[in-house]
C-alpha cells in the first residue's frame, strides 16, 4: 500500500498562523480608544437608564487629565534629556582647565603652583595651612596673610619644611627643594581673637582630566587629576590656569 507523503489539497486546509502584530502603544489606551469605548457604551446603554451627563463628563475629564499628565511627563523627559546634553557639552569644555572644589587634598603637578581658597565666616587673627604626605608627616606649613571674613586665597609652590625631610621629599633618591608631583593631605586651622581655634574646610583648584556621563546614575562627573571624580554641580569656580 502506497502512503501519501504530500497532499496539496489537505495542506491547503491547514490553518496558517498569522504573525502577531506588535502593539505600538504597549497596551496603553489612547484617546481614540477611549472615545471608541465611550461610543460603544452610549450605543449599548439601557434606554430606560441612560448614562447621566455628569457621569459622562466625569469620565471624559478623568481621561483628559490622565492623557495630559502623560504628555507632560513626556515633555519633562525630553527637557531633561536636552538639559543633560547641554550639561555634557559644557562639561566637555572644562577638560584641561582647573576647577575649584572642596577637598581635604591638594595636587602638586610639579609644573605649576598648587592653589586654593579658604572661606571664613568671621575674621580670624591667624590662618594656617598645613600640607602632609600620605603617611601623615608634615611637609609644609605656612600662614595666610591678613585673614579676613570671606574669601582668602593661598598658594603652595611645592617646597617643604627644612626639618620635614622624608621619603616623599626625594626624587630619584636625591633631595630636592620641592616635593615630587602627587596628591597631598591638606589641613587648615583658624585662630580667633577669643582664643578659640577651628578646623576650616579648604577649596582647591585641580585640573580636569576627562568627563564621564551617567556614571552609576550620578549624572555628569568630572574626573580631576589626582582627586578622582566629582559631580559637575560641586564645582564652585572654573579657572583657565
Describe the structure using short key phrases.
Immunoglobulin-like, five-stranded antiparallel beta sheet, 24% helix, disordered N terminus
Overview of this structure, please?
- The chain has a domain at about 100-205: Immunoglobulin-like (Sandwich).
- The chain is built from three helices and 14 strands.
- It has helices at about 10, 30-45, 55-90; strands spanning about 100, 105-110, 115-120, 125-130, 140-145, 150-155, 170, 175, 180-190, 195-200, 205-210, 220-225, 230, 235-240.
- The strands form three sheets. Strands 1, 3, 6, 11, 12, 13 and 14 form a seven-stranded antiparallel β-sheet that branches. Strands 2, 4, 5, 9 and 10 form a five-stranded antiparallel β-sheet that branches.
- Strand 12 and strand 13 (about 230) form a beta hairpin.
- The longest helix is centred in the first third of the chain and has 40 residues, at about 55-90.
- It starts with 7 loop residues before the first helix and ends with a strand.
Amino acid at each position: 500500500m502506497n502512503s501519501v507523503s504530500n497532499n496539496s489539497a489537505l495542506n491547503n486546509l491547514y490553518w496558517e498562523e498569522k504573525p502577531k502584530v506588535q502593539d505600538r502603544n504597549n497596551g496603553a489606551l489612547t484617546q481614540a480608544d477611549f472615545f471608541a469605548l465611550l461610543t460603544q457604551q452610549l450605543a449599548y446603554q439601557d434606554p430606560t437608564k441612560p448614562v447621566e451627563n455628569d457621569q459622562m463628563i466625569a469620565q471624559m475629564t478623568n481621561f483628559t487629565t490622565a492623557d495630559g499628565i502623560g504628555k507632560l511627563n513626556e515633555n519633562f523627559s525630553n527637557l531633561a534629556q536636552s538639559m543633560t546634553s547641554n550639561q555634557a557639552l559644557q562639561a566637555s569644555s572644562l577638560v584641561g582647565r582647573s576647577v575649584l572644589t572642596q577637598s581635604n587634598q591638594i595636587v602638586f603637578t610639579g609644573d605649576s603652583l598648587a592653589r586654593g581658597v579658604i572661606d571664613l565666616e568671621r575674621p580670624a587673627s591667624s590662618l594656617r595651612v598645613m600640607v602632609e604626605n600620605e603617611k601623615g608627616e608634615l611637609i609644609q606649613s605656612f600662614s595666610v596673610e591678613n585673614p579676613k571674613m570671606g574669601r582668602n586665597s593661598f598658594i603652595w609652590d611645592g617646597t617643604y619644611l627644612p626639618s620635614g625631610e622624608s621619603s616623599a621629599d626625594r626624587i630619584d633618591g636625591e633631595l630636592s627643594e620641592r616635593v615630587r608631583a602627587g596628591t597631598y593631605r591638606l589641613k587648615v586651622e583658624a585662630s580667633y581673637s577669643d582664643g578659640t581655634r577651628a578646623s576650616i574646610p579648604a577649596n582647591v583648584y585641580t585640573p580636569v582630566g576627562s568627563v564621564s556621563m551617567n556614571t552609576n546614575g550620578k549624572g555628569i562627573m568630572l574626573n580631576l587629576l589626582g582627586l578622582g571624580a566629582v559631580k559637575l554641580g560641586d564645582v564652585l569656580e572654573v579657572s583657565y590656569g
